[in-house]
C-alpha cells in the first residue's frame, strides 16, 4: 500500500472534503512504528559495521536523535488517535469504497470487508 499517494489530495481528490479518519491515523502510526523499527535495525547494522569498517562515516550514534524524534512522532500520533471520536460503520464503508479500486490496497480491502461482515453478524446477534 502506498500511504503517501493515498494521503495526498492531488492523488485522491475525494480527500479534500474529508476529515481525517481514525483508520488513517492508525495507519500513519503503524507506518511511523515500522520506520522506527527499520532505523533501529540500521543502527544495529552500523554498530557491527563499525567493528569491521572503522572508517565508515555513518556511526551508530547518528541514529539516536532520529529515534528520539520518532518516539515524539509516535506519542503525538497516539494522542491524536486518543482524541479522535472514532469511525462508525458508514465511515469505514466509505473508506472501503474509496480504496477498493486503488492499486496496492487489495489485501486491506479484503480484511476490512471481513471485519465489517463480522461486526454486522455480531450486531445482528446482539439485537436478536
Care to describe what's here?
With 128 residues, the chain is an all-alpha fold. It has helices at 3-7, 22-52, 64-83, 89-99, 106-127. 70% of the residues lie in helices and 0% in strands. Helix 4 (89-99) packs antiparallel against helix 5. The radius of gyration is 20 Å and the shape is elongated.
Features:
single chain; 128 residues; mainly alpha; 5 helices; 0% strand
N-to-C order of helices and strands: HHHHH
Radius of gyration, in Å, reads 20 Å
| Helical content class | 55-70%
Round the mean pLDDT to the nearest integer and report it.
86
Uncertain regions spanning at least 5 consecutive residues: none
Class of secondary structure makeup? mainly alpha
Major sheet description: none
**How would the global form be characterised?**
elongated
The beta-strand count equals 0
In percent, how much strand structure appears in the residues? under 5%
Number of helices: 5
Distance between the termini: 38 Å
Describe the protein's topology:
Blueprint: H1 3-7, H2 22-52, H3 64-83, H4 89-99, H5 106-127
Task: Describe, in short, the structure shown.
This protein has 128 residues and is an all-alpha fold. It has helices at 3-7, 22-52, 64-83, 89-99, 106-127. It has five helices and no strands.
Amino acid at each position: 500500500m502506498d500511504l503517501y499517494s493515498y494521503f495526498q489530495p492531488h492523488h485522491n481528490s475525494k480527500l479534500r472534503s474529508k476529515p481525517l479518519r481514525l483508520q488513517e491515523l492508525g495507519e500513519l502510526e503503524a507506518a511511523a512504528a515500522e520506520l522506527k523499527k527499520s532505523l533501529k535495525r540500521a543502527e544495529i547494522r552500523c554498530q557491527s559495521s563499525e567493528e569491521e569498517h572503522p572508517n565508515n562515516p555513518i556511526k551508530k550514534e547518528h541514529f539516536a536523535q532520529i529515534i528520539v524524534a520518532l518516539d515524539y512522532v509516535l506519542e503525538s500520533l497516539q494522542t491524536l488517535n486518543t482524541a479522535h471520536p472514532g469511525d462508525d460503520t458508514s465511515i469505514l464503508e466509505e473508506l472501503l469504497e474509496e480504496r477498493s479500486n486503488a492499486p496496492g490496497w487489495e489485501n486491506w480491502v479484503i480484511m476490512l470487508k471481513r471485519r465489517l461482515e463480522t461486526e454486522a453478524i455480531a450486531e445482528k446477534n446482539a439485537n436478536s
